[in-house]
């Protein structure tokens, strides 16, 4: 269950937000007992420093949270959310909140209320601190974003035993149903009949049939197609991963989860677009029918692909889905995938790279990411590396040798299947350690940046 804002019943306790440089002046305005308490406990307004303010009966009268200085805040997002895990389960309102911080503070509070309780129930919603919506924010929009983020995290956190292609299909249909979106699912051998051969090849060794999930919503406006990698578990196939590298492979459907979360927000907010969502849902398993190293696959687009590593399967399933998307000549195609370790080596877990040939689109996405605390970073479709994905024996190589520029060569591979305006996001989809507003585990990435940029890039 996602968090929502609470109504102000007059009993909300104040959470005072104090920047470090303004602390002394603020302290002089406080009652003597508050000033004495904060002085005695060494409070100075450092980032994340929290003190409950005790009343005469021992019950809290409120709390004060340090926001540090501007340099400290640049080193992290969601400064106000640092307070949420430390506060008692009461109703709170923010005092001293700068208007430009209101949306990030409120959304971060909602995000911080998330917990994954499917297998070990913990705190109920009533056991967590609640927030009165700050003045001036669009509370309904932020609650929509929080609900979409909850769905994304739940999908990624669910282990593959309970989140295979069929379960991802059910989640996809459940996501679509409240908005009366049109859906279609192509399963198993039907993939070959529908000319989606690489999706079939990657998923055919698993007893859990591969499939393509297809959603359509909206009858007016520009055509927007989202494509998400839905590899529900990745063993690496016959190029088997070491066991340590499989530990997070339940998250290899993070691209699918994130495009589903973005699609849910688009529909819930009623954006005037013709939305299509394509998710190739497969399990890359080991078996007698598994596709093999050095196999040559013919894609939906007709391009042939030499398989030089069965562990580079995500780009194969995405390629067929992207070719299908491109056939309708949409105004914008966006793909999201937990695609390469190279992206994480380059930028770490917090900042997903994206690729596009469109400078205006890139600028709009980057600006939006900064505005909504959803950072992204552009990497190039570097043309000189095109020859690295051309093996000679086939049109394309799914895993160039050499170990260099892996994120770029993967993106170049995908670009071969799209003629439309296109952006590709190589996300991680996982929070390695708890951080403000982000619990350890599955997480949404780039979706809010994309959502915020859409009005500009599609002229909505």
Question: CATH architecture of the largest domain, please?
Answer: 3-Layer(aba) Sandwich
What is the helix content?
25-40%
**What structural category characterises the helix and strand content?**
alpha/beta
| Large-scale geometry | elongated
Poorly predicted runs are none
Descriptive report:
This protein folds into two domains: 13-133, Leucine Aminopeptidase, subunit E, domain 1 (3-Layer(aba) Sandwich); 142-458, Zn peptidases (Aminopeptidase), CATH 3.40.630.10. The strands form four sheets. Strands 6, 7, 8, 9, 10, 13, 14, 15 and 17 form a nine-stranded mixed β-sheet that branches. It has a five-stranded mixed β-sheet with strand order 2-3-1-4-5, with helices on both faces. It has a three-stranded mixed β-sheet with strand order 11-12-16, covered by helices on one side. It has helices spanning 23-28, 32-40, 70-73, 102-112, 139-157, 165-176, 190-193, 197-203, 243-246, 254-268, 314-326, 341-347, 359-371, 406-415, 447-457, and strands spanning 13-18, 50-54, 60-66, 91-95, 130-131, 182-187, 211-217, 223-228, 230-234, 274-284, 296-298, 304-306, 332-337, 353-356, 377-378, 396-397, 422-426, 430-431, 441-442. The chain is 32% helix and 19% strand. α4 links the parallel β4 (91-95) and β5 (130-131). It has 460 residues and is α/β, with parallel strands linked by helices. The model has no long low-confidence stretch (mean pLDDT 96).
